[in-house]
Amino acid sequence: MIIEYNEKYIEEVKDLFVELQEYIASIDKEGYNIVTPEYREKNYLEEMKEIEEKQGKMFLYIEENQVLGLIVGIIDNEERDEYHFKAPKRGRITELIVTKKVRSKGIGNKLITHMENYLKEQGCKAVLLVVFAYNDIARSFYNKHNYHERVIDQIKVF
Question: CB of 47 within 8 A of CB of 94?
């Protein structure tokens, strides 16, 4: 079942954020992504602040009173005066996490569909997201949901 975020699940949500960051750190070929001792608390506070400031929502996937996944989406409609344009209203998925023990069971599909529907209801004309280049599993998942690359960051390590 998918529900809107409830603070009674705060610790499980923080655990999911850490689980994702530890996974990203494990696949980071440059070793730039690390999980600091303060990450758990600081990341949670930053996520909640962005949700509040940008008309966002966090939805949780719950089974047997356990959080198995979450998705965070915001309304991301920054005006870019330096380019003299304003993009149509758009959403941004900032987090999609399904705990490792239940991946490939359709939970991610349900969460992304739920968030896309929410963002459409808010008048968004598109959804953006960022996916780590080395996260082949996530890139494949998003491709199956008709997301495609629009901006590509490149890195040179010294």
Answer: yes
The pTM assigned to this predicted structure is 0.89
Structure tokens at 64: 């047997």
Percent helix, strand, coil in the chain (nearest 5)? 40, 20, 35
Q: Which two tokens stand for residue 68?
A: 């198995």
**Residue owning tokens 């999911």:** 16
Q: Any residues with CB less than 8 A from the CB of 40 and at least 6 apart, and which?
A: 14, 17, 18
pLDDT in tens, 88-102: 889 999 999 999 999
DSSP 157: -
- Angle, vertex CA 127, rays to CA 129 and CA 69, nearest 5: 60
Q: From start to end of the chain, where are the E strands? A: 2-4, 57-63, 66-75, 90-98, 126-129
Read off the pLDDT band of 4 (50, 70, 90). very high
Give pairs for 142-149: CB < 8 Å, separation 24+: 145/109, 145/112
**Token pair recorded at residue 67:** 């959080």
Q: Please give the Cα distance from 35 to 23 (Å, whole number).
A: 10
Tokens of 24: 């990203």
Domains of the chain: residue spans and CATH: 2-144 (3.40.630.30)
